[in-house]
Amino acid sequence: MSANWTTIFHTLVIGTLAYVVLIILLRISGKRTLSKWNAFDFIVTIAFGSILGMILLAEDTSLIQGTVGFGLLVLLQLGVSWLSVNSKEMQALIKAKPALLLYQGKMIPETLKKERITQEDVLAAIRTQGISAIENVEAVVLETNGNFSVIPQKQGSSNSAMIDVQGYPIIQKELTQV
Fold first, then answer.
1. pLDDT per residue over 165-175, tens digit each?
2. Cα dist. 40→23, 36, 74 in Å?
3. Does residue 161 share a domain with residue 107?
């Protein structure tokens, strides 16, 4: 079966639209959906497998259409990566920010609820680091890849690794005003 320009154009348009929709859905579903993958690892891995499956199993999908689909994914991946490196606005749109779940031994209920994390999840992350007392923890951060970073009580005076964590500047400001 040969592909004509209409089917190739259809693959390009539908592939691009599906890619955008999948990114939006993954951003809405939250960081924990992806666990250790970022959104683009997930999308590309699943999409490549799907295209390969269609090329292999669907009689009405030609090798040319599959190749165009693969090429489209690679170009979209390169384009999104380039845009996110060169545009702060695009980076903010695509990447989630780390979220502060616990600060100076106190849970932050609003953030826990927003990120759909339980206190038990935070406590388990603390125990995993070999820390037995919540009071010995400076912060627990939900990273953009779904991992927890547990920061023991600070040794020095700088918290420079915390500057991009959503909620940290607000908490820090509130504590200094007390």
1. 877 766 666 66
2. 8, 12, 11
3. yes
